[in-house]
Amino acid sequence: AQSVTQPDIHITVSEGASLELRCNYSYGATPYLFWYVQSPGQGLQLLLKYFSGDTLVQGIKGFEAEFKRSQSSFNLRKPSVHWSDAAEYFCAVGPYGGATNKLIFGTGTLLAVQP
Amino acid sequence: KAGVTQTPRYLIKTRGQQVTLSCSPISGHRSVSWYQQTPGQGLQFLFEYFSETQRNKGNFPGRFSGRQFSNSRSEMNVSTLELGDSALYLCASSLTRVSTEAFFGQGTRLTVV
Fold this sequence. Notes:
The complex is a heterodimer.
Chain A: E1 3-5, E2 10-14, E3 19-21, E4 24-26, E5 32-38, E6 44-50, E7 56-58, E8 64-68, E9 73-78, E10 87-94, E11 104-105, E12 109-114
Parallel strand pairs in A: 2-12
Antiparallel strand pairs in A: 1-4, 3-9, 5-6, 5-10, 7-8, 8-9, 10-11, 10-12
Chain B: E1 5-7, E2 10-13, E3 19-24, E4 31-38, E5 42-50, E6 53-57, E7 64-68, E8 74-78, E9 87-94, E10 103-104, E11 108-112
Parallel strand pairs in B: 2-11
Antiparallel strand pairs in B: 1-3, 3-8, 4-5, 4-9, 5-6, 7-8, 9-10, 9-11
């Protein structure tokens, strides 16, 4: 069955420090992969996505993610975190070639940024 | 271009009642998906509509239903509300039946008392 694992429930980093959020997926083929961010009480905003091609993808707000097929991972990174990055981050997988837009989400990682 | 609009933003209902939530997708988008978000279960897929037809359904009881209109607007209904139905309900809009991006609304916060 398809699944997404985000091992870190909560992460605290200092402002200006680098960030890496982990995501592992289980899927029968190469999936579509996404990272979304959610601020308290808000909907989800797409940060970046991977479908094929270059395994390092750039997103909005200075985020990037790298797809590693051998590790079934799609980790999110940012070189220097800003206080406004404090939010919850969700990794998601979508079916490739299937006639659906259904997404399977990980449980999320809550990011706190300390001054 | 307007985003995805969900109404109402907040709802308080009593156990046993029913509720209807509305989602207006981005103009030109024909696919609408619904998700339930709770602290315990996270984000779970409810159902997906395209061209007024339900294309996919998650593992939820029959009390949860939905529909899509010819203008792509969608509604979901929950009957005989239970306390456990308290959640943030999110609607996602996509251009076609298989899209590379889903745009989410701000959600409807349902509280069942």
